[in-house]
Amino acid sequence: MDELKKTKELVEKYLKKKYPDAQFTDEDLEFLARFSVKKEPKEREILKELGLISGKGTVQGYYADHESVKNAKDCIQAIYERFNTKRNSQKEKEHPVDVFGDDFEAFFAWWCDKTPEDGIRKCCYCEVDEDTVRAAFAKDEKDKCVISSKKRSFSGELQIERKDPDGDYCADNCEFACVICNNAKSDMISAEDFKKFFVPGIKEYWAHIEEEIKKKNP
Hints:
mainly alpha, two-stranded antiparallel ribbon, 2 strands, HNH endonuclease
């Protein structure tokens, strides 16, 4: 199968989960595949080549008329930033591990496969959903959160957990995990023992947090 066609199909598969009601043309998908996933430069030239803008048309003007494409581009860019941050943090270590072979498309394919059909990811251990974790860390009008931390990495975004802490950051060894599970498990506890001895209490904690979120947002 043509490499670009495979990338377009991957983008389409992800967007159906993330934006089930949005409509994307074949040209939209090719643009997103080339610019957002394959990281081809010259955004405007790709849009012109695909006939999505012409003459003196601008990238900004195109996005103004195609909000769904803009949202999709920003979404994939956010995934790329997660990939790039993880890749750079590992390369700073004395013994860096393989981060999907420095291949963003492989990382994006993993992300897509780990995203359920409803688009809402869950922790692989306690099964709290990403919306709940984000709501717990969201600030209110008084700049308060239900959960907060001084560590920037402790946030409402699901983290990337290595099932085998001695293994690589690769598709077969990675799952999404909430900040509580990922940091409680560390590298000392096996996945089986963690689920058996720790996860029941963490589930109770998240049930408590959900009640606190309801109080905060009646």
